[in-house]
Write a structure and sequence with these properties.
The chain has 108 residues and is an alpha+beta fold. 32% of the residues lie in helices and 33% in strands. It has a single domain, classed as Alpha-Beta Plaits (2-Layer Sandwich). α1 runs antiparallel to α3. It comes from Paenibacillus endophyticus.
Length: 108
């Protein structure tokens, strides 16, 4: 199974979350897994891709609309995770929202 999300024909939206972590797990891994599972049940969710090395993590989630992104941002459980991220897990982060107008996919 590919780690690359299979997505519908554009347009759709990408939420790009880049982060630098603090030291130690402090429950981060469990919460990250919970958030992926919860996001996947949200209306408008299309898929996710994520990669992390020692210094930088990048997660891109894909959504059908700006309204579905806003609903996910406002989800109560997600808000708890966001607050813990600011207080415990992230040294710094950036979040960017982009409209995908074209995409290409290759699979051998």
């Amino acid at each position: 199974m590919s780690a690359i999300a299979k997505l519908p024909t554009p347009p759709y939206y990408a939420v790009i979350f880049s982060s630098e972590r603090t030291e130690g797990d402090k429950g981060y891994g469990l919460m990250a897994d919970k958030m992926v599972e919860l996001a996947s049940r949200q209306t408008g969710y299309l898929g996710i891709e994520s990669a992390r090395d020692e210094a930088l993590g990048i997660t891109v989630s894909y959504w059908a609309s700006l309204e579905s992104i806003k609903a996910w941002k406002d989800n109560a459980a997600h808000q708890v995770a966001q607050q813990r991220g600011k207080s415990e897990w992230y040294q710094s982060f950036a979040l960017r929202i982009s409209k995908v107008e074209r995409d290409y996919y290759f699979d051998r």
